[in-house]
Amino acid sequence: MATKPSIVFVHGLWADGSCFSKLIAPLQAEGYECIASQHSLNTTAEDVAVTKITIGRVSSPVILVGHSYGGSVITGAGTDDRVVGLVYICALAPDADETSQTQQSKFPKTDVFSHIEVVDGRIWLRPEGTKYFCGDLSEQEQKLVWATQGAPKPDLFEAKVGGTAWKSKPSWYIVATKDRTVQPELERFVAKRMGATTYEVDSSHVPMLSNPSLVIDVIRTAASAVQGRSTAA
């Protein structure tokens, strides 16, 4: 019987690896080896490097699951030979000549960016900003998201990611139709450009928290599609 792929989760801004908690436990129960990469959000190169190190902590070929800015990270890290598939959740996916910032600048600015502040060299989500980031969660969950946010350096989005994994690896993409952090039209554009198997969900920017069953189903679909595929390593 073919070995199940491992799942490596890659978080975005104003988050840490705990944002995938509703996915990890069920997938572990099904026999998937799972781990979440934890990023400093200092530089894209560092976040890509940490993701590649995290890939080394699991034992079978890897599906990378990237949320938001984490999509930029898996676009760079996913060129690693150990990676056999990519799942993007409301995510950026720059081409070789793009950065996270230039990709977003082609679309209207979303509501969340009126509810951030730069303090001590970091971009923080204000408490009321959770309405635009994860507004379909309960008030208690929104407070938890705010309390566990990872605050990036202001120039994080200015760097190229160092690879375009979606050009050579199969991909799956979840579009959130009520996203107020990344434009849904941007999500549809990058999903179409990469030729991803695409799903749409009536969700805020965090369907892994508000619609975890759908996200788990997409990851299962990706895992089934690549199961048994060998890597070049």
In short:
This protein has 233 residues and is an alpha/beta fold. The protein has nine helices and eight strands. The protein has a six-stranded parallel beta sheet, with helices on both faces. Strands 5-6 form a two-stranded antiparallel sheet.
Describe the protein.
- The longest helix is centred in the C-terminal third of the chain and has 15 residues, at 212-226.
- This protein has 233 residues and is of the alpha/beta class.
- Helix 1 crosses helix 9 and helix 2 packs across helix 3 (69-77).
- The model has no long low-confidence stretch (mean pLDDT 95).
- Helix 3 links the parallel strand 3 and strand 4.
- It has a six-stranded parallel β-sheet, with helices on both faces.
- It is built from nine helices and eight strands.
- It is globular.
Q: Any idea what the radius of gyration is?
A: 16 Å
Mean of residue pLDDT values = 95
Q: Strand order of the main beta sheet, please?
A: 2-1-3-4-7-8
Could you say which structural class the secondary elements and strand pairing correspond to?
Answer: alpha/beta
Percentage of β-strand residues: 15-25%
- How far apart are the termini? 21 Å
Order of helices and strands: EHEHEHEHEEHHEHEHH
Question: Counting H and I runs of at least 4 residues, what is the number of helices?
Answer: 9
- Major pleated sheet: 6 strands, parallel
Shape descriptor reads globular
Q: Which residues form runs of ≥5 with pLDDT under 50?
A: none
- What's the number of extended β-strand segments? 8
Helix content: 25-40%
